[in-house]
Specification:
alpha/beta, binds guanosine-5'-diphosphate, globular, Adenylosuccinate Synthetase, subunit A, domain 2, 11 helices, GTP-binding, Adenylosuccinate Synthetase, Chain A, domain 1, adenylosuccinate synthase activity, 3 domains
Length: 428
């Protein structure tokens, strides 16, 4: 039963290349399960020279033999899901192999409106959300006011939905002084999109449990990253769900013992979109150079990503709190050309040296990064096929990360294409 299920999550602040790595492992898998987040995610997958983008559709979709599952822990914006499927179909991707949990929550127009209104109300304390309504949808889930996919089959749904919208309109107009939404328009749009995916809705918990127990190889795909986790991330500058590998079982409704290995995807440097502490940030020409070479602009919102040096304190924290067994390092090619590469090994806070992330945002904002410096490399590494093909300085860089974080590196990636992926444990 070795490696019969693998969880793949981001181990930094998102955009680590999870989509690419999930697509890579999906070539050998039977099922890919997306277990958290919504269309706040944005993954670019390049296969056979074609660039695809997914937000809520699992990253296994380019593999026609894979069953792709959106599980209960994810939240779904139906019009966005439907249009994403249409775009994929137009580029020749088979989308019939997508199944959707009957227990997943639905992102609705009032969630999106409230996300925007809340952000505006926060003024200079803005989180910098993707404005996809994710926070308000998870808020309603916890408040037991959410709409689940299964509710759309309920003959009494329309009346309940009307009550919810009436309540939300009071909130929008009286508290946030925004524009009321029209119930009939929202209801008709929701039901017409529901009709288009209705036949793909099932009890995904049962499906996943059966697949693993019958020996199939199942992947679990997280969204965002460990440091955006609602419990363990850099709160309040986080997303509204548990992005952790530990949430894979809860977010898909299976026994945690059925999950064999947790893999963290890690950029060879750090990026962050939105507000919040970022001790290794390089808001200078180094950061700009990396942003340009790495094309570090949000695939979802187009925002330039903030860029910084590799942070071993943050990764060690992520390894512990999200329960990682191995890491996969991406975008190593982007560091080519840096004369010196730096790795943060501790922070200084109020004159003390610390090696973990403090809970208070004000403290995290004040952390100064302490670095080790290593000589960089100039060679183009985008065509290497093995570890030993890498320049010695790039080898040393990977080995240093492994040593500082005491974790196995399962592989590394040197370009966006599926082919530009090097697995260090071929039997995996
Ligand atoms: P995700 O949200 O974690 O799936 O990551 P994104 O897709 O948002 O961002 C990662 C970006 O890096 C995408 O544009 C990928 O095509 C690209 N990418 C992934 N791996 C590599 C790599 O090894 N090298 C380079 N240059 N680009 C990569
Ligand atoms: P993927 O899956 C990077 C960030 C937003 C903001 C915070 C809260 O592509 O890695 P939200 O809209 O979730 O309420 O925003 O989280 N964020 C992401 N940053 N990658 C993502 O997804 C993100 N999803 C949310 O920028 O700071
Ligand atoms: Mg992304």
């Amino acid at each position: 039963m070795k490696n019969k299920s693998l969880v793949i999550v981001g181990a930094q602040w998102g955009d680590e290349g999870k989509g690419k790595i999930t697509d890579y492992f999906a070539q050998k898998a039977k099922m890919v399960v997306r277990f958290s987040g919504g269309d706040n995610a944005g993954h670019i997958i390049v296969s056979e020279g074609v660039r695809h983008k997914v937000t809520i559709v699992p990253s296994g979709i380019l593999n026609p033999k894979v069953t792709n599952v959106i599980a209960n822990g994810a939240v779904i914006n139906l019009p966005r899901l439907v249009s994403e499927l249409e775009i994929l179909k137009k580029t020749g991707v088979e989308t019939k192999n997508l199944l959707i949990s009957n227990r997943a929550h639905v992102v609705l127009p009032y969630h999106i409106a409230i996300d925007e209104l809340q952000e505006n109300a926060r003024g200079k304390n803005k989180i910098g959300t993707t404005k996809r309504g994710i926070g308000p949808t998870y808020q309603d889930k916890v408040d037991r006011l959410g709409v689940r996919i299964c509710d759309l089959f309920d003959p009494n749904f329309k009346a309940r939905f009307a009550e919810i919208i009436e309540f939300k309109n009071r909130l929008i107009t009286k508290v946030y002084e925004g524009q009321a939404l029209d119930f009939e328009t929202i209801y008709q749009e929701l039901m017409s999109n529901f009709e288009k995916i209705k036949n793909q809705i099932v009890d995904t918990s049962l499906l996943i449990d059966t697949a693993i127990k019958s020996g199939e190889y199942v992947l679990f795909e997280g969204a965002q990253g460990a440091l955006l986790d609602i419990d363990h991330g850099t709160y309040p500058f986080v997303t509204s769900s548990n992005t952790s590998a530990n949430n894979a079982s809860l977010g898909s409704g299976i026994n945690h013992n059925l999950i064999t290995t947790a893999l963290g995807v890690v950029k060879a440097y750090c990026t962050r979109v939105g507000t919040g502490g970022f001790p290794t940030e390089q808001a200078n020409s180094i950061g700009e150079g990396i942003r340009k070479r790495g094309n570090e602009y949000g695939s979802n919102t187009g925002r330039p990503r903030r860029v910084g040096w590799f942070d071993a304190v943050a990764l060690n924290y992520a390894i512990r709190t999200t329960g990682l067994d191995k890491i996969f390092i991406t975008l190593l090619d982007v560091l080519s050309g840096e004369p010196v590469v730096k790795i943060c090994t501790s922070y200084s806070l109020d004159g003390k040296e610390i090696t973990t992330i403090p809970p208070l945002n004000a403290d995290y904002q004040n952390c100064q990064a302490n670095y080790i410096e290593m000589p960089g490399w100039n060679e183009d590494i985008t065509k290497v096929h093995s570890f030993k093909d890498l320049p010695i300085n790039a080898q040393n860089y990977l080995n240093k990360i492994k040593e500082l974080c005491n974790i196995d590196i399962l592989g590394f990636s040197v370009g966006p294409d599926r082919q530009q992926t090097i697995l260090l444990e071929p039997e995996f």
